[in-house]
Amino acid sequence: MKYLEAAPNGWILAMFGEKTSDVGYFINNRSTTTLSSDSVLENGDRLNIFKYFDKDYYALFMSFDKVKLEAETDKEFTLKLNGMSTFVPPSEEGEPYEGGKVVLKDENNKVVAETKTGKDGLTKFKVSKPGKYVAVMESLAEGDTHAFFIAPYAEITVKGEEKPVVKEEDVRVQGADRYDTAYKNADALKKQLGLDKFDSAVVACGSNYPDALSAAYLAKVKNAPLLLSDVGEVQGTVDYIRKNVAKGKTVYLIGGRRVLPEEIKTILGSDYDVKRIEGADRFLTNLAVLKEANVNNEEIMVCSGLGFADAISAAATGRPVLLVDDALTAEQKEFLGGINPAKFYIVGGKKSVSDNVQAALTAMRSTERIAGTDRFDTAVQVAKKFFDMKSSTVVIANGNGFADGIVAGVTAMANNAPLLLVDDSNLKGAADFVKETGAKRSIVMGGARAISDQAVKVLMGR
After folding, report:
1. What is this structure's pTM?
2. Distance from C-alpha of 166 to C-alpha of 392, rounded to nearest angstrom
3. How many CB atoms lie within 10 A of CB 249?
4. Which residue among 45, 136, 276, 288 is buried most deeply as judged by most CB within 10 Å?
């Protein structure tokens, strides 16, 4: 085939066997009606050539805002997808395109991640392995009636070091009680972050779960420990904060005075900026926490606020958690309408989060339900959805109590590791997940009464 066919006067008649009248062009993602003697291409310019598909030119030209970019391992990078008709005035720019499926492929052309663009055309990726990657668009948004699209691509060079080989070990984090276990976990987090003292702390009730379920994401955002307290633990909470949080920094109390005594603030005095985050009920407290964390344009995990297990699994993904009842409240709808959620993930079956809630969420944004046969299987399904199936570390907590699990969520986020919920009678699903991923290291939250040493051996295939 001749690449170009030219007339005696030098005009190009055909390209790749197609008449130039049937071919369109984009230079640096801007439309141009033709290539002629006054068309100037500079070194490094990007020229796209495409054939008009039908008489109406009913196709979309898609482009990313970046053709090449560099990123670092385990750090998020963003691409913006624009789309425009292939028959538009010269130099017209595209508009952000929502709902396009974008995949990220490695050097072996294997898909390592996929997502859909948000309302602003943005899509986010994060990879842990250095190397060359390509982002491509695979499909149009649901309901888009364009017959064809010209697919964009972007080359991403990810720099960084390969993750070190993880040695086989089981690390148990335990204290004398749930409060002491939370302190021990905070110590481990401080060491992992390389801190002498924290710049903030998040404190939630240790004797009831609703407000504590909201606290994990705020702790992540603030690089803070999640501490548990109540009426009988005030002095222990104050002592830990004084020893481990820098003076003048912020201490967040999650919930009202009935669940977290005002005495904590009184004893800390002016040495700390103590900020109480509360609402009239668990759902309004949840919204207050999400607002304090400045949630915006993110994937939202939606869970029942009347139970703890599914919300614990969801929180471990590092995403904000919205707690719901049988229907969305007016306050929840107003909040969601103002933060441009990227997507909703409902965690749990229809008995936990109703079809009514799912329908209301779907009316706002793409929604997906993740559910297992029980709380233990749901935790596995969440792990499979959101974590690399080559995870080297897993975090394990007892699924029948909330205290260790809530604290474990912070540990899971810090280690970018899935959280598996188990008990002595429910090990198989988690053990199968560990075997499939090849994980060698476990972080077990709580003592042997919560999860026995033998159970850990079974889980990890020792």
Report:
1. 0.67
2. 7
3. 17
4. 288
